[in-house]
Amino acid sequence: MNVNDFDYNLPEELIAQTPLADRTASRLLAVHKNAGILEHRHFSDIIDMIHPGDCLVLNNTRVIPARLLGHREPGGGAVEFLLLRRIEGDVWETLVRPGKKCRVGDRVSFGNGELKAEIIEVKPDGNRLVRFFYQGIFNEILATLGEMPLPPYIKEKLQDSERYQTVYSKIEGSAAAPTAGLHFTQPLLEALQKKGVTLAYVTLHVGLGTFRPVKAETVEDHVMHSEFYSVTEETAATINHVKEKGGRIICVGTTATRVVETLADSSGVIHAGSGETSIFIYPGYQFKMTDALITNFHLPKSTLMMLVSALAGRDLIMKAYEEAVCERYRFFSFGDAMFIQ
């Protein structure tokens, strides 16, 4: 498959720059994958589209203030760090700008020197492994010095950092939000539970590989980034019970989808576990666990376009995106949603 098969034309003004005041006020494009029908709804209608006995799988990761602005020592040149993931202890994999000026052994200072870092390795993809030095608790220092790492296509300053967190975010570690979950409020989740819908929480720490363009010409040649995931025994048992009873497994976001598909076996049973997943889902993939998906609109030619095309079929997805552009839907992280069922 050619990567260009997943391209579409998006007017720049449709890229949402700010979140809506009401999380549930987004529009919702319902994609009925078997009937090939598209339906225009509002996100608050999701309460009528999810049935008693279904299970919503939600990613409870929490975004850390991963963007750090500092200066090189000595010399004072400006440096930007974007923390991607903790490797071990105080060693992190980090995106560094300007990378060419930051070599192994170079040191960087942040704030008034309360946080310092040394570059200890340059990885083949250009990312750096850095070791941090500080007195006190790292997360508290990061909360003081760090900024929320918004995607590069968002130019507006975020007024409330909690609007880039889901209301159920819990486990810190992401460099980006699982944005499909941004549409849910606590009252909506409680209403779904009251209706008889099961909620199951998994963890996948979202890395910046999500936003990286696919550079290969053919889909099969793309090398997927890896991300940390974790699913407890209790959550696995909950999901398996719903599946066994005939309820739908509805993943909230592509990240939740990647977790359940990583841990599901060929008989459609999910197993507890944690580790790194680099699962790459594109057309031709046979889903083992996911029946439906709530997701946002994705970047052209991205691996996420390929994932949703695997679930609903490429032709229907391209038709849905064309319709969303025509109807002036809001795109990407703070944009509108799609429900593939």
Description:
The structure is a single chain. This protein has 341 residues and is an alpha/beta fold. It has two domains: 3-63 and 160-340, 3-Layer(aba) Sandwich (QueA-like), CATH 3.40.1780; 67-145, Beta Barrel (Thrombin, subunit H). It contains seven helices and 17 strands. The protein has helices at 46-49, 138-145, 186-195, 233-244, 254-263, 303-312, 314-326, and strands at 27-32, 37-42, 55-59, 61-63, 67-73, 78-88, 91-97, 107-110, 115-122, 128-134, 171-174, 198-204, 227-231, 249-252, 273-277, 292-296, 337-340. The chain has a nine-stranded mixed beta sheet. It has a six-stranded antiparallel β-barrel with strand order 5-6-7-10-9-8. It has a two-stranded parallel sheet with strand order 4-11. The model has no long low-confidence stretch (mean pLDDT 95).
CATH architecture assignment name of the largest domain: 3-Layer(aba) Sandwich
The CATH topology name of the largest domain reads: QueA-like
* Dominant shape: globular
Derived from helix and strand composition plus strand pairing, the structural class reads alpha/beta
Q: Percent helix among the residues?
A: 10-25%
Which CATH class of the largest domain applies here? Alpha Beta
SSE succession: EEHEEEEEEEEHEHEEHEHEEHHE
Number of structural units classed as domains? 2
Q: What about the largest sheet?
A: 9 strands, mixed
Distance between the termini: 24 Å
Determine the mean pLDDT. Answer: 95
CATH superfamily of the largest domain: QueA-like
Q: List the strand order in the largest sheet.
A: 2-1-17-16-14-3-12-13-15
Number of strands: 17
Q: Determine the strand fraction and express it as a percent band.
A: 25-35%
Radius of gyration: 20 Å
